[in-house]
Design brief:
Blueprint lengths: L1 E2 L3 E4 L6 H8 L16 H12 L7 E7 L2 E10 L2 E6 L8 H16 L5 E6 L4 H9 L3 E12 L3 E11 L11
Antiparallel strand pairs: 1-2, 2-3, 3-4, 4-5, 6-8, 7-8
Helix pairs in contact: 1-2
Amino acid sequence: MIRTPRLLLRPARDDDLLPLHAIFSDPETMRYWDRPANTDIAQTRAFLDAFMKADPTTRYEFILDLDGKCVGKAGVWDKPEVGFILNRAHWGKGLVREAMEAILPGAFAAFPDCEALTAEVDPRNTRSCRLLEVLGFVIERIGKQDFLYGGTEWCDTAYYRLPRPAIQPPGVMR
């Protein structure tokens, strides 16, 4: 677990199901995710089960807990790719930045063989693109119409990269 000024970054647990479903079933929140909004809580249950059983050699991700409630998730979900999602009610408050600033040093410590972390984003998701750049990620290229969203819409992808820092900060233990 990691504490930040406002958040507890913790492992997922069963009682995160309803808050995660509120996030994953919201079409606006899911607009730039890798799949459309969930239409059934069983989809969210399957996601949560996989999250809780994730292999720590390829994942370093956390539930974003604000005042005892799950409001999102963030971290390395498929080494070396980072990802984050936040309940729309909390957008614009700097919570994901706060979480990722705490997670990134620990991710490099958790994966000593990882030369860089990456992110893949729909370039229309300007908030996520801006956040990645603030965190130090650099855009490497834009793939044109290279992602089929929901089986119906071809989208561009912005590919970002954050090289391992030259001076490694102390590792964060989970």
